[in-house]
Amino acid sequence: MATEYRSLLMRANRLMGANLVDANLVKIDDLEKANERLLELVASGQPRQNTVLGILCYEMKVVREEDVLQHVVDNEGVGLVDLRDYDVPEDIRRQTDVSSCWATWSVPFDREEDFHFIATAYYLSPAVRAHWEKLLGGSVLWFGVTLDAIADYLEKLELERAVPASGTRSPFGRPVTPGGTTAPFAKPGSNAPFPKPAGSVTAAPFPTAAPVPPATGGSTPPTAVPPPVRT
Questions:
Q1: What CATH number has the domain bearing residue 124?
Q2: Tally of structural domains, the chain
Q3: Measured in whole angstroms, how far is the alpha carbon of residue 26 from the centre of its chain?
Q4: How many CB atoms within 10 Å of residue 34?
Q5: Orientation angle between helical segments 28-44 and 3-22, nearest 10 degrees
Q6: Does 84 fall in a domain?
Q7: pLDDT attached to residue 45
Q8: C-alpha 28 chain-centroid distance
Q9: Is 57 a domain residue?
Q10: How many Å apart are CA 202 and CA 65, to the nearest integer?
């Protein structure tokens, strides 16, 4: 990971953890242990596991991710989105900076005039919001999403970029065989960046549907129009 992204990753996680403590969602002692574990995982070079939230939720099991999302909905007025059911425009997929997304656990998924729609598992981190607002300019509408959904989306995007488009000749003249590449993302049945114990079931924190507009009144952002329905 490049130095600039590593710095962003550490800052995003540090402020995420601090705000989880401020919100009484985790204890400071647990956060300190999670931060130590995060340093080990960052050194391993596995971006899917580089998340203090994931460590707290799926490795230490001291907080549930759905409770964190519910806190964001109730206290920040942020809506929720399921990226698996969303048709992200091709131009946005093409322009996505995957390294920034991994570092901030956030992805742009739509745009309507001057409004940018971003799904994030790290809304509670001011460093994440500041990064994307500066990078994109204009107005940003935030939507909560799970770590798993972010990771699956990014790994699929990386796979698409690694495989030549249909009809493109390989540099050595060999045909590209569809389905011949093993996807790097988690096998079916793993619903979190940290695999859950066999037999455990975690209820989905939101229904699989189109993005839900955030609640109004004193929230950030104060109002958010839902993304246009694409056919």
A1: 3.30.300.160
A2: 1
A3: 20
A4: 23
A5: 160
A6: yes
A7: 83
A8: 24
A9: yes
A10: 10
Q: The domain containing residue 140 runs over which residues?
A: 3-162
CA 154-159-164 angle, 5° bins: 140
Question: What does the DSSP assignment read for 38-49?
Answer: HHHHHHHT-GGG
Q: Rounded CA gap, 101 and 9, in Å?
A: 10
* Nearest to 6, CA basis, from 55, 43, 37, 58: 43
Residue 26 forms part of a structural domain:
yes
| pLDDT tens, per residue, the chain with 231 residues | 678 899 999 999 999 999 999 999 999 999 999 999 999 999 988 889 999 999 999 999 999 999 999 999 999 999 999 998 899 999 999 999 999 999 999 999 999 988 999 999 999 999 999 999 999 987 999 999 999 999 999 999 999 988 765 544 434 434 444 444 333 334 344 444 554 444 443 333 434 444 444 443 333 443 444 555 554
**What is the Cα–Cα distance from 8 to 221, expressed in whole angstroms?**
23
- Map tokens 């940018």 to a residue: 116
Is residue 197 assigned to a domain?
Answer: no
Name the amino acid, one letter, at 70: Q
